[in-house]
């Protein structure tokens, strides 16, 4: 398959692995920011192959994993109303809030529809004028433009039965929050290629300058990841600190301007609670005042439910590289995909699910 | 004196009266169902089908079909019901003989839809040489079913040599898939979720009788076990076989036949074709050294032209089922948990 098979070539992958081992004089600690990268690293056996040469920390880059419990509880609460259809991406359905998951709510009678794009949710609102359609808008900068487009479409169609639970999050503030922590272990970043496709990578210049850490924009296929890792290792070995783009077939320095314009038109930056991290300053996007009528929190005056219980999931330790999923006391015991303690075990992008799925042991 | 209550005689839709055992029920059964599936046993309209003696032992299976939508590229609920049931018999080593057919219809089901499904059932039964010998109809109120549900039972005669079964798998046995995987699940997903694909991917819904027959004739006792890889896909079959045998089943990703459209959609949505349903593709285990011959025989038939040896059976290792991907390292392949959900990014 074009643009896929050539980036999965086993021979080329072996050569890159050998090169990484050859240039490494010590074990470097890198963080891949994106959950998609985590899965690819484990699925293709790269993390295991590089054991002892490069330690990979699986960063906070799964929007499903970092969606705050309160937002999930609110989505479940709205879904249970007779007049509401809740539309969501599929992998959000199994993630537990403090009062159960959306799947639990659906079992209890809530009307929840899986959609494949935010525009599908607008279509749903058109089809069901008698219902309020609420789209659970999660995702990084990659999905925010599509949600923005959905809001504009709903406005153009004068749909007064469409709204959003906006839980969009921004990657770079999370990276800043990680490196500012006193016990930060990350020595270089593999930046998420798809986020950079939208946002470009120019904004990382100041990040690299300020924190003196290499950042390499990296794709998702085995060869993309190996090239990204090699570029990081070469910089670290040469004691250099640069921003590099190793995903040039997709990513341009300035990113996708029209997508960025759309995001700027519809959203404003806000502080956002990340599950496991707490509130990250400027870590999220919310609707601008002039689009606020599409905010489900404005439209439905539901009382905010308190989040129940204590989150036993140690996702923060996992996502900051202080705990490998198999070393977590709950891993494969009280926490597994059938009964997850937290989102990293249930989301298809989550680090714990990746370790579980690909059978990685503590030694990895 | 005429009855003061008018009996609905709407000819276009199934009504609750069609299920109440009266004149409309008889009319529906005789004029549509028996007429479409016509055979002597059914025409006798006995409470139970009276069947001739057979020489061999019998195999019995049952299945229910609740697919939505009822029609999809490559098939419909009718063909699915017939092929699904006879495939279960075929892979068990039986020659399918008789089927029962229960139709649970939702009030409001257009009769033209029912007729089309019955026609599909009749054609699939004729093509595979099975007779539908007994049945039942029920009508449920609007909203209580998704148009039409079908339940079948199938009876077949076991024919030697019967595959020895997954419990007899041994080290070195070879694993084969009979065609490209994941087609049915992707076809249904594309239609149901209106993914806007052009052309629409097509289901592999079909009969496995001929491929099983050719394996039986040419490979005999060298075939250990067969299984149509329906819900849960190839991965689910491997998990079951690994559990039954206590061995490790190991496959190589690069050997798996996957059509470009299934692969593309799976990549896009974060689904694994190994976990996606098939309806005319089976997994086969043969004795060590017999894989190439089995594949060669299968490739002579159009329905299994894409058959491939995809892996081997080993002593239990790091996991019950393993897969080798890009770098060649053996990794566990997990059991699907419920239906796979498409991912966000």
UniProtKB/TrEMBL annotation, chain A:
State the taxonomy lineage: Bacteria, Pseudomonadati, Planctomycetota, Planctomycetia, Planctomycetales
Stated family: Belongs to the HypD family.
**Record's protein name:** Hydrogenase isoenzymes formation protein HypD
NCBIfam families hit by this protein: hypD (TIGR00075)
One example of the protein's molecular function in GO is: carbon monoxide binding
Q: Which UniProt keywords apply?
A: Iron, Metal-binding
Q: Does the keyword Endoplasmic reticulum apply?
A: no
GO process annotations (BP): protein maturation
Name the domain of life this protein comes from: Bacteria
* Entry keyword Iron: yes
